[in-house]
Amino acid sequence: MSLNPFSNSLRRRDIVLAYTLLRILLGVNYFNHGFTRMGNIPAFAQSMVDLFQNTFIPDPLVRGPAFLVPIIELIAGGLLAVGFATRASLVTLFGLMIMLTYGVTLIQNWDAASSQLIYCLVLFILLAGSTFNVFSVDRWLARRKKG
């Protein structure tokens, strides 16, 4: 039996590299979402209140979480980019996406909802594939602790 040089098998090192690059990319994306909003969180919160003015959700229940969104994006995105507290960052971002998806579907912004589902799919891939999180601060700390 001859080996097929065009085999469809995936090599672990390629999966680890792909995982690392995807983790960094998503982390940078979330970090920059938060970073660009940090300079004017009150205006961001007000824009969210304005979006939800015709819904049943009262102003404080929109404004409060809206103040936290950029902070969560900044912190969890930064941690994800470097691979520190990766699992906690992914779970936090999943929670954020659940909240944001609820909001955009409530106002029937289906384009945003579709985009958010893509984010959730990437979060799923990263959380489910966490054994491939080799190039990260988490892994470095675990190795250091063992040695």
From TrEMBL:
Keywords: Membrane, Transmembrane, Transmembrane helix. It is found in: Membrane. The keyword Transmembrane helix applies. It is a multi-pass membrane protein. Signal peptide: none annotated. One of its GO terms (cellular component) is membrane. The chain crosses the membrane at residues 15-32, 66-84, 91-110, 116-137. InterPro entries: DoxX. Its main location: membrane. This is DoxX family protein. It comes from Zarconia navalis LEGE 11467.
